Amino acid sequence: MYLFSILPSPADEEENSLVYMRKCTGSTKGLFVWHLPKPAVRQMPCKFMHYCGVVNKRWITFQHLNFLKRMYVTQYNKDLSQQAKPKSDPVAPPFLEKKHLGQEKTVIHEIRPVSPLHPPSSETSNRNEFKAVNSAAIVEDLATAIGAESKEEKQWKEMKLQLDDLPGILARLSKIKLTALVVSTASAGFAMAPIPFDLTCFLLTSIGTGLASCAANSINQFFEVPFDSNMNRTKNRPLVRGQISPLLAVSFAASCAVPGIALLTLGVNPLTGALGAFNIFLYTCCYTPMKRMSIINTWVGAVVGAIPPIMGWTAATGSLDAGALLLGGILYSWQFPHFNALSWGLREDYSRGGYCMMSVTHPAMCRRVALRHCLALIGLSTMAPILDVTTWNFPLISLPINLYISYLGFRFYRDADRSSSRKLFFCSLWHLPMLLLLMLTCKKSLLEKEDKSELLS
């Protein structure tokens, strides 16, 4: 325990009293001087004077000095006593930190051999020195190699394109799965046309539509590289990873677009070629920039998806009939539950990429629109026999799958969670092929239409 000694000082010569602290042993290792102004001592309360008279006149404890400080602060600095300051963490002096750092460095970098009990001979010392020099050289070489490797990793490297990997890269650039869906819907439109089936025209239509879709998807990825890099779903695309150059991507898109449109225009008919060129323009120049501007992009994208079955119908008939518009309407309505359910699970990705989607900015509208178009599929299926595209069996046999997707759309609208959106999305994947297949089986034959036209005439 430490005690404190107050040495008396003449009041006539000095205005302040000196307080010296020392240990009880009497060995003074340092002096700490406190300056107490004379008016402060005079104005101390009577209780403090009485308290000091009770104890020894020469020795007081640390609690007494603490009381003295507290009385001084509360009497002359009342505003300070009302402020509560957080207790600062003890900080080690800088020279101690440097010392510890120096010790750590010496421990890490300096490895000294343990000295033997008996002094070694000259040969042993030479061998030890040789080993120490070799070990130091090995450590230095390893450090240099690691530093060079880390420096090379930070530098830009030119990726070499292997010819064996090129087909797979171009397939991912053109979104081969989406292209296959586009070709299948165009083929369904061609098959639903009320004319005899022409295999050559069918193949030309499928190839031209596929090339146009590859071109549109490649240009879309070319424009969206900085935004796709921020999304987990698209960060592994070829242009984002630098597997191919932008020049190669644009060249591939041009090599698909030009022969594709030429094939549809010259090999099929000009109307189908015009629809293909318009679809590429709508997808790349309207839908792609709109994704970061307004939620209207979803409706524009639905129009893009509705054009391929119309192209199939026009390729077969050469005209834009009510049946073509019906097929386009079915594809238009189907895309809303399909895409809205997909985008609901990717809201974080779309917001990170800067895309303006209904699921991000208008979540209630996203669910409401999906349910509305699920119900619209029932009405469009009922319109097929009225427009003389299918028989009346089609609305009946398609009603169960339309009711099921409408039920899942209602669950998605009510629950608004990932589970319901996932179920609706996976249902849409098999709903469209099943609906088109049922529509094809219930298609009115050419003989029935000729008989009906003869009766009307």
Q: Spell out the helices and strands N to C.
A: EEHHEHHHHHHHHHHHHHHHHHHH
Number of contiguous helices: 21
What form results from the Cα inertia axes? globular
Please state the average pLDDT score.
76
How is the biggest beta sheet arranged? 3 strands, antiparallel
- Which percent range fits the helix content? over 70%
Could you give the count of β-strands?
Answer: 3
The rounded distance between the terminal residues' Cα atoms is 124 Å
Binned strand content: under 5%
Query: What class, by secondary structure content?
Result: mainly alpha
Radius of gyration: 43 Å
Strand order of the largest sheet: 2-1-3
Uncertain stretches of 5 or more adjacent residues: 1-38, 76-87, 89-110, 115-121
Describe this structure in words.
The chain is 70% helix and 2% strand. It is mostly helical. It has a three-stranded antiparallel beta sheet with strand order 2-1-3. The termini are far apart. Mean pLDDT is 76; it is low at 1-38, 76-87, 89-110 and 115-121.
Compact overview of the structure:
The protein has helices at residues 38-42, 46-54, 62-76, 78-81, 94-109, 122-154, 166-173, 176-192, 199-223, 225-228, 238-241, 246-268, 270-290, 297-317, 322-344, 347-353, 358-361, 363-386, 393-415, 418-441, 446-456; strands at 4-6, 19-21, 59-60. With 457 residues, it is mainly α. Helix 13 runs antiparallel to helix 14.
